[in-house]
Please model this.
Amino acid sequence: MKVELNLESGMRLAGNNGKGHLTFFDASENHGGDNTAASPMEIFLESMGACSSIDVLNILRKKRKTINGFKVVIDGERAEEFPKIFTNVKIIYTVNSPDVKKEDVEYAVKLSYEKYCSAMAMFLKSGCSIDTECIVIN
Model:
């Protein structure tokens, strides 16, 4: 896996994965940026959420469940001192489905947490605690 980052202006960077997919990064005004894109740490949280979401959706769909809507909200707390790593993360998974039970989502989240999600594993191996909550709307 190889990616490239190019400076556009100020602190704004364009990441390219070589397949033509672009990801933009910027810093806040406090750090010399223009706040025109997500920060690297925000994208790190988004990446973990996306990685786990793909796992959860795949598991539910393999159980032939109907997914009408899906949302993940992540709240991350960081250390006060440098390096300001994430110390605690809360992830709330909300599934809108006529046939999914809360236990189905909890099982899928557990598999993602314990086995499949590489991004989540990196958070855990850094010492970050991760709390999850599952909500089902029928």
